[in-house]
Amino acid sequence: MTKLVYLVPLFPLIGFLINGLMRKNLSKAASGIIGSGTILASFVVSVMLFMQLQGGSISVPPLFDFIHIDQIHIPFAFQIDQLSSLFLLVITGVGFLIHLYSTSYMKEEEPHHFARYFSYLNLFVFSMLLLVLGSNFVVMFIGWEGVGLCSYLLIGFWFKNNNYNNAAKKAFIMNRIGDLAFLIAMFWMVAKLGSLTFSEVFSEDSLALLTTTDITGITLLLFIGATGKSAQIPLYTWLPDAMAGPTPVSALIHAATMVTAGIYMIARSNVLYTMAPVTQQIVAVIGLATALLAATIAFKQNDIKKVLAYSTVSQLGYMFLALGVGAFTGAVFHVITHAFFKALLFLGAGSVIHAMHHEQDIRRMGGLKKYLPVTHITFLLGCLAIAGIPPFSGFFSKDEILMGAYAKNPLLYYLGVAGALLTAFYMFRLYAMTFLGKFRGNSHSESHANDAQVADDHATFTTDEDAHGSHNADAHSAHQPHESPSAMTIPLVVLALLAVVGGFMGIPEIFMRGGHWLQEYLAPVFAGSAARSTPHAIDHSLELILMAVSTVLIIVVCLLAVSKFRKYQSGEEASTGLGKFLENKWYIDELYDTIIVKPLMWLAKFLNNIIERYVIDGFVNGVGRAVQYSGRQIRLLQTGQVGGYILLMVICVILFFVIKFFL
Amino acid sequence: MPINYYIFLAIALFCIGVTGVLIRRNAIIIFMCVELMLNAVNLLLVAFSKMHYHTANIEGAMANPNAGIDGQLFVFFIMVVAAAEVAVGLAIIVMMFRNVHSIDVNFLNRLKH
Amino acid sequence: MSVTEILFWFLTVLALSGAIGVVLSKNPIHSVLLLVATFFAISGHYILLNAQFIGIVNLIVYAGAIMVLFLFVVMLMNLNSDTEPRKNKWLRLAGAVSGGCLMLVLVAALKDADVKNNIAYMNKGEVGLIENLGKTLFTDYVVPFEVSSILFLSAMVGAVALGKRA
Q1: Fewer CB atoms near the end CB (10 Å): N or C, chain C?
Q2: What pLDDT score does A479 carry?
Q3: CB contact under 8 A, C94 and A647
Q4: How far apart are CA A150 and CA A128, in angstroms?
Q5: Strands, DSSP E only, in chain C?
Q6: Does residue B66 sit at the A interface (CB-CB below 8 Å)?
Q7: pTM of the entire predicted model
Q8: Under DSSP, is residue A80 helix (H, G, I), strand (E, B) or coil?
């Protein structure tokens, strides 16, 4: 039965190879079936493993020795416990739905690009599975790098557009900065403990060997790695730009799976984090700050995908806040529910974009309620879930995080609630401007000319390779938007269902004793942390009051947003002051450009023009010139005077004797 | 005589010959100094041959009456070669004199071209 | 001081002064004659070492034939002291210094030689006698002996070929 574990990553790997190598020979139907079928197979196996796991963990014997130097022994091995099996289900399940969706969304592509897309997606799923299945940090890191690579490949999928390539590069480079920190943390652990296998690192003996400085340093470095992968401050700016990729990619990678890798890693190392309160403080603060920052920016964005991207960053901030206050179960819970509703929202947005013929500016949408009924309902359900309205899934998971925050420090709770209110506001703004009101797709507006970029940037690989001009978009959206085909709507429905009922796996104590199935399920994984920390329990009545108050506030904010934006007329105010600041993302990209990019370019120019040209070339050419010069000088020895030659001979004989006999 | 004395004598003669080669510009004198060097070597060889004879036959016991004869035979052959060399060398010098009408060695710098 | 020793020192002085004279004399004819004297002294050394054959051959071949040849050539070219070319002063100095250094180096190298107290057997010993030499030459070393005849042949041919006009 344990051999089944190998099948889980094996299927996507095979799918990647087949689609990748035979992409010129496969029809679109074939590559779609292969791509999705492998993930479905992995999902089935994951379910079987989940059933089998009911008692304890499954540890799988190592495949082969990856690194073996002296005492350092790093095998290539997998491990299944409750945490990884949950993640497996989410990855393969949501992944399969997204694959299914993609077969329809990407069908305008040519066959070999279509096959390339699916091969990249399969490779991504393979890497992600490696990440969660690994039994030591090294295999996790392999998967970590792999998903970063696939992110790059998929963001820059339409590679003919240079802007997309730049976005892909940005994502990869920022990821790498985090990876460096991760690597250093691994080196530190190997140096101190001689092993990277989870069971050995987290055992009591190993932990006793580490000093507080060690633990704080390691956890901090791991966290920096997580900020790169999971888009926290300061390494988050790649995620909004990553919306350049196809929408299903955004759904899979940047909503449901890759960005949760950081959370998984920290959840896995929960023991270390519990022993380093300083790092936990930092994690919580940064998580909260990111949540608020992203929420304020999302306020003012007009591209449907950008709003969702910032919402992802914000929700990730909440997950890190949970990790920071020690509510590990809450973080994992939010990961799962977030995967459901965020994937739902992205796929819904993809459906809208598809219907609007690749128009992404919400100021030119509106009134889509009657054209896209299924999408409308599912999107609404997603918005309700993310806002945190009971009894949808987001409510339970977000509430658990906020309660954990309150137990640690009430200030964190209040700020968290503020963020939740912002979340509700901008999500319902998005909903209202997209689906309610009148259809604005045919109107010319003043802001239209400024935003021609948005439509232009969306070059696809159709037979006419020109970018869609702004008039093209108008001409297309003059046609009626229509509902998407069933391959796209079925995943929407399934995910909506999950978003609605998914919360019931973690009902808190106050509603139903013993209802928190997730907490009991994950207890063994977090046992080490539970043993070390003193849980702050909140009074039941206080908890109920807080919950009620926050829910009411959220509902009020939702209604406010809907009423404000359902009557939105395009061509309104140009942004001023604070609005402009938020719209331009707090000018953080510009800040990074000035602080980091420009000095690096200056340094590169300096190195090229001065060091390369004068020092290195000078040295290399100088050697040549020196040889020539010495050759010219030595030539003068050949005077042709025999007497001179003989003198030289005698001198050399003398030297020879001296050296032979006296040295 | 201790062999030392012969060694120093031969070294002295040899070095005088070297100095002569370096100092003089007349081709013939240079050639004669070369002969001088050869002779110094000959002398040393013969002295060593007698030394070997002596060490092989210490005080009367005629262990090997022909010990060290190789040295003297070698000298014989050196003389043979020296003679041949002189013949050819002088022929060259005469030819040089015929062409340049001088026996100054410095005029031989055509090697430069 | 036995007679042998006195003779040794006398012959040494003669040889050295002759050699120095060869190098320093301005008239080439004087150089030739002084070299002849040096050869005589060296032959004397040979006789002293009881290398009779070598001594006589030295006189006949070297002093007799080779030096006479030199004399012929010198007289052919009509060399005398005023046409003697002189080298540049510095070069002469360099040459002298080099020669002196060479001597010093050789002496220093050999002064620690193991053999320095061995005796060169003088006055007696059969190894220099002509019968022994002849026997060894014609039994062990007959091949080089014959080959040297070829050497002579080539030398003669060379000399004649070089000497032909045009």
Answers
A1: C
A2: 62
A3: yes
A4: 10
A5: none
A6: no
A7: 0.68
A8: strand
